[in-house]
Amino acid sequence: MNAHRQHEHARRVSGSIWQTMSQRGIQCARADVDQALQELTGLQLEKIEWAAHVLGKGGDATDAFELLAAFRNVSRAAARTALRAERIVWRADVLLQTATEATGARFNPALATLMRAEAAPADREAAARTLKELCGEISDKDLPVLQEIREVREAPAAAHHLAEPEPAPHEPHHVGGGPAPPAAADRALPPRKVKVYGKTAALTIEQIQVRESTAMTVIIEAAEKLAGEDSYDWRNKIPFQVTLRELPEFFALLMGWIDAATFKFHGQNNNKHLAAEHQAHALYLTVSLGSRKIGVPIVDADRYALSTLVLSTMTLNEPNLQATAVLEIARATMLPPPHLAAPTQGKA
After folding, report:
1. How far is it, in rounded angstroms, from Cα 27 to Cα 184?
2. Which of 99, 118, 297, 345 could form a cystine bridge with 341, CB 3.0-4.6 A?
3. pTM above the 0.85 mark?
4. Half-sphere exposure for 342 (CA within 13 Å, toward CB)
5. Tens digit of each residue's pLDDT (9 = 90 or more) over 17-74
């Protein structure tokens, strides 16, 4: 595979690989993954794709975890900057091979020492010597590789437009001029959360991981307002976890494709229910536990925030699909065929 074709392929698969790594707790900045994938050999890229596929399908293969963890370590911008400062070969193909071979037991501690700002000078020098021994020093032989990568990256933007993967749900589009702002390489993405406040009650809707699964869903927590106070009784909240099968219907409700929905028989005693209905000025949502009910109106501004949260959650469960594809599939499956729809069906 020539450099341009491999570059295009790396761009196409980087989004799904990054999402799988994030879902399985192997946190790395999206920009670092993009760059490192472009520097791998064809065989290494195939191995990374294989590992992401295995873990994305819920597998727990140790070698797949170890390979993606090693890839994360050599992809971090901070690591590569530290290596470059010591004139150590920082190309991802060299580093990944070194980190995953028998020499990895020496490579990983040495790299960690080199990145630690408070490391003693003697320790840093020893780490640098170890890494130079394992990876080699930057020399003239590396220049052609660096130049080839640079030429591919600087190709006209139009050549890459169709292959550009959609940013993952948690990463905003960069629309300003100049380079995109750097991402925090070592910061894990927090679960998304939205709060909705009403006059008598409030809701918290948050992304959570399904127990004993890698899939994500949302949990809704409803709490009543404390009498005479400007706060809510979260100690006595009613939690309601939307199931994976209910998630698309809940999204359709938020989008206004359907007028109402009811989810019943949740909880250990099958006595938790959620009901929601579009009214004149808001979507009114009620969470109940037995005879106890808590209702909150969700205005359009809050409904937008909830819709994006649920869409991002559904997209996390489909690492091989972009958000636009998930959106279209949800619309197609949640709305009846046009020839069967009643005139008042939904709000599409």
Report:
1. 10
2. 345
3. no
4. 5
5. 888 888 888 888 888 888 888 888 888 888 898 888 888 877 777 888 888 888 988 8
